[in-house]
């Protein structure tokens, strides 16, 4: 696990940079659309979808399920050096978070 930590830190760093760049370009796109002139129905719907605020719900659910997965791993016996069990358990809980988000979004729409 100690060899994996620098790799994870680099990945998290690049993900944070990507999130910042996406937020910046979404802001610029909204500003250009609004500055372009009168808005029709399609552009107002696009702007509403672009800043819908569902990202907080999605990442809140995913991080909650990931945390639950980490807690559950404490109760599962496995060899910490050779076992892929922790990765599998964590991926299962993260995917459950995404599935819950998908079902909530589908029910709203």
From TrEMBL:
Q: Name one Pfam family in it.
A: DUF6249
> Which UniProt keyword terms apply here?
Membrane, Transmembrane, Transmembrane helix
Q: Where are the transmembrane segments?
A: 6-25, 59-79, 85-104
Q: Which residues form a coiled coil?
A: none
Q: Where is the signal peptide?
A: none
Q: Please report the stretch or stretches of sequence annotated as the DUF6249 domain.
A: 8-105
- The protein in question is named DUF6249 domain-containing protein
